[in-house]
Amino acid sequence: MLRYNNNYRLRYHSLSSEIYQWRVLKLLSQTPHCVKIAVVVATAVSGMSVYAQAAVQPKEETITVTAAPAAQESAWGPAATIAARQSATATKTDTPIQKVPQSISVVTAEEMALHQPKSVKEALSYTPGVAVGTRGASNTYDYLIIRGFAADGQSQNNYLNGLKMQGNFYNDAVIDPYMLERAEVMRGPVSVLYGKSSPGGLLNMVSKRPTTEPLKEIQFKMGTDSLFQTGFDFSDALDEEGVYSYRLTGLARSANAQQDRAEEQRYAIAPAFTWRPDDKTNFTFSLTSRMNQRRVTTAGCRKRERLSRCQTVNVCQQISTKGRKTIPILVMRRW
């Protein structure tokens, strides 16, 4: 409401536009010149506000927010973070780790990508209850000691996708960590589920499987001890519905070690194919081919040493066994 006190009063009420304009004109004819200007300005501003309020009407819009549910983690698939929530090592079923009564540690592919280990045992360096440095810096074999029990020889407890990897002492198979989706360690006796095994625990490795999301990765790596490595990882769905999918992972590496004559060359390729006839059924066919060429065993060949009157000379001679394993021969001479 606008009021002017000098024997003249102007009151603004909610009247129709015609009555309002008539009253303003009548008032202007009876007021001084300066007052007329002020009243005209006030009237113009009031009229603008009236027309503005009539022209601009708030519109109510409905905004619908939708969010897709978080993808369910699988015990055989990738984890969203470095901390896995599912595991199948203890129960052989896809079970949350919080509901598993056994002690389990999972090293995911995300964590391996951060640390860039050269072997599976290096990937387990931060796992409690696992000793990985009993063979020095050699990465020839994944030799582990879990809770004080060595898993070697016929009691070696290395599994791939829940199946025991056959090996005997220095004839154990070695899997490169780049080919794995995760590495799980279960501590404690496991003979009820896995048969004859070391009472300390076991290592279960899960290989990479096809995904329905496009994945294209090429890796080049260089490091100490003349490390040169290249790898690739491709995966995608073969149709729009995601019924068929594939994955192809490969690796080539050459490196030395801190020991003398400890060169190694590793080649691996792993194609995989998955068929999903429905949401609850899938069939995965995978093949892993690897070749490790080494000149030493777990400890490597040491350089020439001289202790008092005893001199030891180590001569490494390579004997090939079907192009996969090498057996060194140590020749000692004393005088």
From TrEMBL:
Motif TonB box in this chain:
62-68
Q: Which Pfam families does the protein's record reference?
A: Plug
Q: How does it sit in the membrane?
A: Multi-pass membrane protein
InterPro entries xref list = Beta-barrel_TonB_sf, Plug_dom, Plug_dom_sf, TonB-dep_rcpt-like, TonB_box_CS
The molecular function terms of the Gene Ontology recorded here are: siderophore uptake transmembrane transporter activity
Question: Which GO CC annotations does the UniProt entry carry?
Answer: cell outer membrane
Family, similarity comment: Belongs to the TonB-dependent receptor family.
Name it: Ferrichrome-iron receptor
Q: Which organism is it from?
A: Salmonella enterica I
